[in-house]
Amino acid sequence: MSSRVPTSSPLSSARSSADTYQSATSQSQPQYRPASPLPFELLQHIQVYLEENLFSQALRFLLSLISATTSNEKKGVPVPPFDYLAVFSTLAVHPNLTTRASNPDKLAQSNTALRLLWMINNTTGPVNASLSDAFRFRRYDDKLSTRNGSPADDDDAWRNRITITYADKDSLFNLADDFWAVVGWALNCSCLPGPHATRWNYWLPWLEYMLDTLETDWELREQAGTCDQSLLWQYIKSADGGNARRRRVLRATFADGGGSAVKEFRPIFPKELKERKQEGKQVRKPDIKVDIDEEIFGDYMEESESSTDNEESGQATDPLSGQPSKRLRTRTPSMRRKATPRASKSRLTDHEGSDVSTADESTMSSGLGPPESIQIRLRLLQLLSSVSAHPELISSAREVNWPDLHELYTLFVEFIRPLPLPVFQQFILPSKSKGLKPESRMALCEFLLQRTLDSDHTSKVSTFEPMTLDRLVQQYLPYASGKNSIEFQAKVSILLESVLRQLAKDNNIASHQKDDLLDVLEEGIETREAKANNIRGSSKYKKAANKDEEFAVAILQESGKRMKFVVEHLVK
Question: What is the pTM of this model?
Fold first, then answer.
């Protein structure tokens, strides 16, 4: 099959896309079933349910319709129109049905909505179900702006349009600027405590579903030679930022809850961080006796005393609420972050007017969130790599200005190399969970090594040729980091360990190479540990020694031991 990218528009009809996909994937597994439109009467039932806010009934009705067709593999799966699917995606994460759900039934509605989306994705696939239309962000889409009374091009679509708030002003796809705004905000939530962490509990399942959809859709489009119609390419083209869109996409992927990240990627829904009020009886304060003659004024004087204290402390008072106003703090050197480029810990203010102080280190992320958050980021990096691996796709849309593989991985290095060592390990070392493919991880390791090793290292490989043992031994394994930092010595060791483990797993190390490999390996370990010991022995280190440096020493030593174990016991 030709790999040439067709010149058809990404907004081609879903029917033609599905036909192309079916012919291209007739031999592929799994075999998705065709989607069939719902009969008018059934669709009317669902529409009435939704407009009456009977979401549970609508969702269960659809689940029963789809389940009834599972026994017949040749029968089409009944799938509602794409605007209905967009509503269900909104219901899965909207605060009214999650963090502010007033009862267990509403919370169950969000879970059922996500379950329905998974079922459709697993039975018909994202192409047949027209998910590229359903999950299109429409905030700046003039074509879909029908508030002026002009009907849509399709009369049936206009007649069946859902007139509920979750399909209009409260729709996720109308509120968010683009997909990357959602990604950045959700990943910010993964790095912050309190209400942010609560929101992350609901954003995570939604992100996992969306990434599965993007991955499957890209794979199917790639097989059919229609990558320009993929949902992923649509999200890249529609990303805000113009020529700087590549950096914005990467900033969203590495959003860390820091000051600049929270300012750029803000809450999606109005008052999203507001949680449901806990029901309970209000405890009445005891009555306070007031006796002016005895100078007993109750709590009347407390307000004036509080105001005086505010004035003495130089703190302004809000003229409306009487409460101390919250002023922006000035930046200090101690508030700078190293997690991502240009990140800073400044005062955060969300669009709802609620302030979040970042002066307390305990309230901020020390990395990039829990392991699930790291996995989401790695899957995003792999998707971006897949796009950049298609030069014909990129060259056919020069106005998008998306980087090729070399430029993209150079950006990856810019964002990954400064990460704290514990987070750096999670990005680089192999894992059984979904993330970077082995070939992508090996390429990333090589890019990082080329930009981290000392001046003795002379490799200038710019191609994405598979890593070989000879190249590893000659150009990388014996060297140390050029930076006068124990942390970077440990990072070099982690990079080399990742590459070595993958080569051993792929059986790319022959038994007769074992002895020579061990010699070079031990030479490199000694070089890096000697440089680390020199740093530890300096007076500057002794004055500034901290737990992070001691942790880096431990990682450096343990990584060296693991590499020796791989060569001594896993190479046959």
Answer: 0.79
